[in-house]
Each structure stands twice: as C-alpha cells, then as structure tokens.
C-alpha cells in the first residue's frame, strides 16, 4: 500500500480540482450496458437509433463510474481515504455518446474535523463532468472521510474543532430592515447579477439555509434572502404574536429596502404564502413568483384548537447542543432534516444557532417561536388567491409526507389568475433544500421564460 500524501487538511472549501478527461468508446458503452444496465439504447447501436436518444448512449451509472475513476486516479490514489457515507442528488443532464471526451472536476464544499474521532475528518464535495462541447452531463454531491496528518497536535491546538460549521463559511452582505411594526429584520445579499430575486424561507429555517439555492441562481439573478421575525438573526415579533400577516409585512419591508424596479420572489412553504400576502397588500411589488408548496389553505382549515400537528412536534425540539457540530451530526442522521443536501444542512446549522456563555449553542428560532408560527398558519386563504394577479409558478414534490402541504399546490395554482402548476418527482416538502440545483433551474426557467 502506497504511503498517503494527501490528508484531510489538504482540502480547502472553495477549491476546484481538475480530474482530467475520460474518453467514452462504443465498445465500453455496450460492455457496461450488457453487464449492469441492459437497456437497448445502451447495448444495441441499431435498435438505439429508434430510441428517444436517436442513437447509442452510455448508462448514467457508467458516466458516474467514469467520474469516480478519475477521482480515484487523481486524488484517492494519493490520499488517506477512510471511505464514504454515500452520494446524493446524482443527476444526468445530457446523454453521453460514443466518442465523447468527458472532463471531470470536484469542488470542495466544506471540510469538518470529526468530533468523535481525532484522527479523521469529513470532506463534502460537488462533482461535475462536462463533454467536449462544454455541456454538463453529470453532477452529484457526496462526502468522504479522510485521515488527518497530525491529529493529536492539531486537535489540541484548534479551539474551533468542536464547532467547525461556521469556521469555513463565507459571509454575505447584510442589511438591517425595519418591518412595518418595528421588528428588526436581517436581509442578506447572497450574490449574483441580473434582476433582483428575494428568497423567503420556510417556518423554522432562515435565509442562510438557502445559500446553495442562491448559488445556483446567481447566474440569472442578484439574490437576496431575509430572515423572518423570530427566525435566524432577525428580532422577535411584538408580544410573541407570529400571525402570518406579520410575515407578509416583513416581505413588503424587504422588497421596499431592495428598491428594485423588477423584483422576483422565491418562496418556500410559509415563505410562499408571505410573498403572496405582500403582493396582495401592494399589487405590482413582484414581477413574478416561484412558490414551492406554499402554505395557502382553504379558509378555516386550521381554525380548530391544536389543529396543526407540526406545532406539537416543534415544541418537542431539542434547543441546546454542545456545539454546532453536534447538532449537524444529529440532524444529518434523522428525519426530517436528514433529507437536506449536505451543504444546505450545514448552512442551516451555521445560521440557525446562537452561542451561549458556557460555549454551547441554542436554536435561534426557539421551539416555542416555531410552534407559534405553525399555529398561526393560514394567513392567506385559498379563496383570496383569486385576487392576486401576478405570474406565479406553484410547485410541489411528489413524495408524500404527513402532513403533505404539496397536496394543496394544484388548487393554489388554479386559484391564482396567472398561476401554473409543476411537480418534481422524487422530492418532498424540503425540495429546495434537498435538490437546490434542480429547483433553481426550474425557478429561473419559470420566472424568466428561458
């Protein structure tokens, strides 16, 4: 076994590693297809001419394996690798054909020392492969475990090793905005260029959690994200009243602060309802909206006491952890947050806690605040959506949950005069945080008409 020369410390967030190229041949495509994916358009060049692809193409798993071979040859062959917990959000964007020359890269998303094993750390990666025409054919995200070069010395010397989630993160530009009732709000400019887009988060989350989504949107928009009252780094609601009319006022205040002549909105869950309420109160605020499973329900749906089952669950949330790293480890292995993409979950943990005097961390959005926000849901009845004439795409995942807000999305789209409905296979209610690239691409297409 070769002595490793690459260790955990050699991976720096933001770095992009060129992995080289892989030449895809017809014989290899057929051989792989016959062994592992025997569909006719992978195995029979003549029959493949009649397929939707118009010719022989490589199995997506073959493309994935080609990327893996380049990763192993370029990096892992020299590294102290300790295995991987898996890949997620594997996407095949373009068919790969015989003769294609595939170039592979890996971007280091994050690197965190283990809080349980002093001799190792976890590296989070984004994988990309493009063809000779510069078109992306494959993307994925994953994580791998790597040994540390000098674990004993560096663990002792690094005071941040127990709470690494914020140590490598970039800081967005922030603006303090006052809502209509005086609540201090945090509004972040996340980056990008183009028309302005305001991202509005779901209950219990905050704007920073949507950083991966914002990154995928920044080629088309200048992206902003707010923290609603009681969430993230924004101030509490007066008298702990989290009626959703206040959330609509928060959106309106942030829209005014951005001051754009052409402003778009992206809303997730509660954030979608708040966008619609802001547009309802001041028509023309937004040029278009993309709403992922907005909480817009029939009138009286949650009027009965204790009708919202999410409130009870919120009150049972653990609020205090020894460190952000401990919280991240817990969330990544449990429902419901475990479905989130690794970088989105890391961003949620980064901005979702405040430090306590004893070194521990506490949820920024308290369990009681989250519960009261759930109990106040229903700020905009479906019946009132008919009066909101703004171009709006209403999206939902196809993976059912309990409860499943996506079930109401088609009715919301029908109620909006300029509404249209679209669905995402294999995504649930956390879709923008599960597969930010997929949802962002749809949002850009729907909002800009590309």
Give the number of domains: 2
Low-pLDDT windows of residues: 152-171
Radius of gyration: 23 Å
Largest sheet: 8 strands, mixed
> How many E strands?
16
Mean pLDDT: 89
Q: Tell me the CATH superfamily of the largest domain.
A: Alpha/Beta hydrolase fold, catalytic domain
The CATH architecture of the largest domain is: 3-Layer(aba) Sandwich
Spatial sequence of strands, sheet with the most strands: 6-7-9-8-10-11-15-16
The chain-level structural class is alpha/beta
Helix fraction?
Answer: 25-40%
Q: What's the CATH class label of the largest domain?
A: Alpha Beta
By DSSP (H or I, 4+ residues per run), the number of helices equals 15
Task: Describe the secondary structure blueprint for this structure.
Elements: E1 16-23, H1 26-36, H2 40-43, H3 45-48, H4 60-74, E2 81-92, E3 101-113, E4 120-130, E5 136-147, H5 151-157, E6 173-178, E7 184-192, E8 196-200, H6 211-217, E9 222-227, H7 244-258, E10 263-268, H8 270-281, E11 288-292, H9 309-315, E12 320-321, H10 324-332, H11 342-351, E13 353-355, E14 361-363, H12 367-375, E15 392-397, H13 409-415, E16 419-424, H14 431-434, H15 436-448
Parallel strand pairs: 8-9, 8-10, 10-11, 11-15, 15-16
Antiparallel strand pairs: 1-3, 2-5, 3-4, 4-5, 6-7, 7-9, 12-14, 13-14
Helix pairs in contact: 6-15, 7-8, 9-12, 10-11
């Amino acid at each position: 076994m070769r002595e490793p020369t690459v260790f955990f410390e050699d991976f720096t967030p933001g770095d992009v590693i060129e992995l080289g190229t892989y030449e895809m041949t017809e014989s290899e495509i057929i051989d792989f297809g016959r062994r592992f994916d025997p569909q006719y358009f992978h195995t029979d060049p003549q029959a493949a001419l009649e397929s939707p692809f118009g010719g022989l193409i490589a199995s997506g798993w073959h493309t994935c394996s080609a990327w893996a071979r380049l990763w192993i040859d370029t990096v892992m062959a020299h590294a102290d690798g300790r295995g991987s917990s898996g890949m997620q959000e594997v996407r095949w964007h373009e068919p790969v054909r015989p003769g294609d020359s595939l170039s592979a890269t890996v971007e280091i998303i994050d690197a965190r020392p283990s809080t349980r094993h002093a001799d190792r750390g976890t590296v989070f990666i984004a994988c990309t492969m493009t063809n000779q025409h510069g078109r992306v054919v494959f993307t994925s995200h994953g994580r791998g475990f790597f040994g540390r070069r000098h674990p004993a010395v560096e663990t002792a010397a690094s005071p941040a090793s127990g709470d690494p989630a914020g140590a490598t993160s970039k800081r967005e530009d922030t603006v303090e905005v006052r809502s209509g009732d005086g609540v201090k709000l945090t509004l972040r400019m996340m980056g990008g260029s183009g028309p302005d887009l305001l991202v509005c988060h779901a209950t219990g989350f905050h704007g920073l959690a949507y950083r991966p989504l914002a990154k995928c949107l920044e080629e088309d928009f200048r992206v902003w994200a707010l923290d609603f009252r009681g969430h993230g780094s924004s101030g509490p609601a007066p008298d702990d009243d989290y009626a959703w009319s206040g959330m609509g006022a928060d959106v309106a205040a942030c829209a005014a602060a951005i001051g754009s002549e052409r402003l778009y909105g992206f809303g997730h869950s509660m954030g979608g309802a708040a966008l619609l309420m802001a547009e309802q109160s001041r028509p023309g605020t937004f040029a278009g909206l993309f709403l992922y499973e907005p909480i817009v329900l029939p009138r009286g749906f949650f009027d009965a006491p204790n009708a919202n089952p999410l409130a009870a669950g919120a009150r049972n949330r653990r609020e205090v952890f020894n460190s952000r790293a401990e919280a991240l480890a817990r969330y990544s292995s449990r429902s419901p947050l475990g479905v989130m993409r690794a970088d989105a979950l890391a961003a949620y943990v980064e901005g979702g806690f405040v430090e306590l005097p004893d070194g521990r961390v506490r949820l920024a959005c308290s369990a009681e605040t989250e519960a009261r926000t759930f109990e106040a849901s229903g700020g905009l009845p479906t019946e009132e959506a008919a009066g909101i004439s703004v171009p709006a795409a209403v999206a939902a995942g196809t993976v059912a949950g309990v409860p499943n807000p996506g079930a109401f999305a088609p009715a919301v789209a029908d109620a909006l005069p300029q509404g249209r409905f679209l669905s995402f296979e294999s995504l649930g209610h956390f879709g923008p945080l599960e597969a930010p690239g997929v949802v962002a691409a749809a949002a850009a297409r729907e909002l800009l008409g590309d």
